[in-house]
Design goal:
- This protein has 20 helices and two strands.
- By secondary structure, the chain is mostly helical.
- It has a two-stranded antiparallel sheet.
- Helix 3 packs antiparallel against helix 4, helix 8 packs across helix 19 and helix 10 crosses helix 11.
- It starts with a helix and ends with a helix.
Length: 504
């Protein structure tokens, strides 16, 4: 089948009434959590993991993807109107967007962000559909040594791409790998790190860990922090863009897409890097560079397009190789495993209806988001008036009830609290959260592939480098540490130097 035929079959799945409902719920929730500062799509998907435990896998994953896309859209609203990014990838949008809002041009800023996100999401989703089969064909030739190299690449990716310190990322990863050792060893039948507790023989529940780290840990972190309220900028004048705004926006939309999608698709990618680079490129190519720092529409259009293009890009390594490159992708990986599915090349062979239905649903979700964001902007702004104590009390209650519903056990509730305190401690000392979840999920798989490779070679460790594919994966693993550090330094250094120049 051609890619267009596969997409057409996927659209048949995505346009089923129940899947349309799941997509609508996902994009609505995603937009809402994107608007609310501090509550991102990763936290929301983690909260919904136990709730969707017995639902249809295709519908649940479509809803999770909708939340991911919606969160990218909604993050721009608080960046522009409140100067408080809902997502880390929306930091750059606040630089120019809030200046536009203060100058009475909040409407056009929101419009260019929404339309740019739609254009980027549409192009990037089509790119995902065409690139994924090629990656799958390559990955089907993998043996145990190549798969172990792939897992090492994933470990290096999450260690370097999340947080500001590679060492902290590695520390979080090793916590996850340690938790992955808990339970019965499938090859020897011996209990490991169970300490005589029967509930630990089956290992640590991924859903419990994800909910605890992202939801409980975030709620405790917010409760411990003290901060003042920010002023919401009122939307003055028309929400629609002028002809001049369109003329200045369409090229940044395309450039942002071209920058964001490849960086998101890289095993060492992530939306934050792409948005910084897009902002830097737009300032260098701008017709009126003197407007940057004072409310240049290109500084909103480009980064927002890069932001959404990278969201589709991160699904390339997730679906084809099982590599998560963002926190939300890590939680979506846990969602796949919750339904007994392992993202990777075999998923395209064993369950093509689900994979292509998920990809096609992104096109539908993208259109839904455009309709939801522009006319209902007033509704999303009202969400910012919800008192923070109410919001996080609701999150704590929802997390607890969801865990009880999925696994009614006193011990599991104790684990939820313990991991919640771990999540708070990690945030308190600026350690990334996602590598812990990735270590728990991929650690046992990496161990299994390593054992198989060494058993086939009768104990010869050189088997891990016996093919050019394996060597290439090890080289990529090293690059996954070096490249994000360089890109992050280069992009942020340029932005900060520009901001310093503007403030002089």
């Amino acid at each position: 089948m051609t890619t267009f035929e596969l997409l057409a079959h996927g659209l048949v799945v995505a346009l089923q009434p129940m899947n349309l409902l799941y997509a609508l719920i996902g994009v609505t929730l995603g937009t809402a959590v994107g608007v609310l500062p501090g509550i991102g799509p990763a936290l929301t998907v983690a909260l919904l993991l136990p709730v969707t435990y017995k639902l249809d896998p295709a519908g649940s994953l479509i809803m999770f993807a909708g939340i991911y896309y919606g969160g990218m859209y909604g993050g721009s609203t608080t960046s522009i109107l409140l100067n408080t990014p809902g997502e880390s990838s929306s930091i750059v949008t606040a630089l120019e967007g809030n200046k536009m809002a203060r100058a009475g041009r909040g409407g056009p800023a929101l419009a260019t962000a929404a339309i740019g996100s739609f254009v980027a999401g549409l192009i990037a989703t089509i790119g995902l559909a065409f690139i994924a089969p090629a990656v799958v064909k390559l990955a089907l030739s993998f043996g145990p040594a190549e798969y172990f190299g792939l897992m090492v690449l994933a470990f290096m990716t999450v260690s370097a791409a999340f947080g500001e310190s590679t060492l902290r990322g590695l520390t979080s990863l090793f916590i996850g790998l340690l938790l992955g050792l808990v339970g019965i060893d499938l090859q020897t039948g011996q209990a490991r790190l169970a300490f005589g507790i029967p509930d630990l023989l089956d290992g640590v529940e991924v859903t419990t860990l994800a909910v605890a780290l992202f939801a409980i840990g975030e709620a405790l972190s917010v409760a411990a922090a003290r901060g003042g309220d920010s002023t919401i900028q009122a939307i003055k004048g028309s929400v629609w863009m002028t002809r001049e705004d369109w003329r200045r926006s369409w090229k940044p939309w395309l450039r942002g897409t071209a920058i964001g999608f490849p960086i998101g698709a890289m095993p060492a990618g992530g939306a934050e890097i792409g948005t910084f680079l897009s902002y830097s490129v737009e300032k260098q190519l701008a017709e009126k560079p003197e407007e940057f720092g004072k409310g240049a529409i290109e500084g909103v259009a480009g980064p927002e397009a890069a932001n959404n293009a990278s969201a589709a890009g991160t699904l390339v390594p997730l679906l084809t190789l099982g590599l998560p490159t963002t926190a939300t992708a890590a939680i979506m990986l846990a969602g796949f495993q919750q339904f007994g599915l392992q993202p990777g090349p075999l998923l395209f062979v064993s369950n093509p209806q689900l994979v292509w239905g998920l990809i096609a649903s992104l096109l539908v979700a993208n259109l839904m988001l455009l309709v939801l964001n522009l006319p209902l902007i007033g509704l999303w702004v009202k969400l910012l008036t919800i008192p923070t104590p109410w919001l996080y009390a609701g999150i704590l209650m929802f997390a607890t009830l969801g865990t009880i519903g999925a696994n009614p056990s006193t011990f599991e509730l104790g684990m939820l609290l313990a991991f919640g305190l771990l999540g708070y401690g990690l945030r308190r000392f600026h350690y990334p959260i996602a590598p812990v979840v990735v270590g728990l999920i991929l650690g046992p798989l990496a161990e299994q592939q390593l054992r198989r490779a060494v058993a086939i070679s009768q104990g010869d460790p050189s088997v891990l480098f016996h093919s050019w594919i394996a060597i290439g994966l090890w080289v990529l693993a090293i690059a996954a540490v070096v490249i994000p550090l360089y890109l992050r330094w280069r992009g942020k250094d340029q932005v900060l130097s520009q901001l310093g120049g503007d403030s002089d």
